[in-house]
Amino acid sequence: MGIKFMKKKLTINNIKKKKFNKPLVCLTAYTTPMAQILDKYCDVILVGDSLGMVLHGMKSTRDVTLEMMIMHGKAVRRGIENSLLVVDMPIGTYEKNPKMALRNARKIMKETLCDAVKVEGGIKVYETIKCLVNNNIPVMGHVGLLPQSVKKKSDYRVKGKDHLSFNQIIKDSISAEKAGAFSLVVECVIKDLADKINQSVNIPTIGIGASNKCDGQILVTEDLLGYSEKPPKFVKMYDNFKQRTEICIKKFVKDLKNNNFPNFKNMYQI
Ligand code: KIV
After folding, report:
1. 208 lines ligand 1 (CB under 6 A)
2. pLDDT tens for residues 13-28?
3. Is 193 exposed, middle or buried (0-12, 13-18, 19+ CB in 10 A)?
4. Is the peptide bond before 262 cis (omega within 30 degrees of 0)?
5. Domain range for residue 84?
6. 204: which of 88, 129, 131, 215 fits an S-S bond (Cβ 3.0–4.6 Å)?
7. In angstroms, what is the span from residue 219 Cα to ligand 1's centroid?
8. pLDDT tens profile 115-150
């Protein structure tokens, strides 16, 4: 017998009740079909700018544009009825000043009909988060490893190993909450730091490579499905769809070569 997943609808206003009331189920989606599947199980669906690497073959999230986020945000919106939809603000669209951030966040909200946007950083984006929230745009924060700041592969490192960065990331988390963020993604930090952040803020924390004590967990869906070449250590791969896809493609090619496709079932007769 299959496991039954009972899902209660979450809103920005009641998500805070999820603090210390695990688990907040979160995954990424970039397309309508994936969103339709996730919508049955997830509290939050994030259109992450990881789509630059996962879908578009980019080296990092740094080349992702506002237009790309809006296009995929619209596609995901078409597949969602119940989950909260959060769309990442890509690099270059919010960090310079709150006015610019507000203009771009409004565009994302209007075109994708998402429930919230996500921005990376803490103290540095305090004024930006505050401005968006004051203008009725709910914001999810993101601390720890900030993919938009990663310029080379070796920068993908676990954060919080030294005193300085440990304390800085706690300050960033508190700052995001003070600015009005309704939840906080905590990415790739040592477990002690994630646990400390979880105790230091009153908003739900969503871990990715963080700690089982976070209020929720998020992964890039393609990572857990086994589509990614070398997923980080924190990913649990539940299947290997990359391999499965290749097996199917090979079968298709074999059928063509052996003249087994299309056969009479795949062709129209009068
Ligand atoms: O871009 C993304 O997919 C993300 C998640 C991994 C948290 O930010």
Report:
1. yes
2. 888 877 878 799 999 9
3. buried
4. yes
5. 12-239
6. 215
7. 7
8. 999 999 999 999 999 999 999 999 999 999 999 999
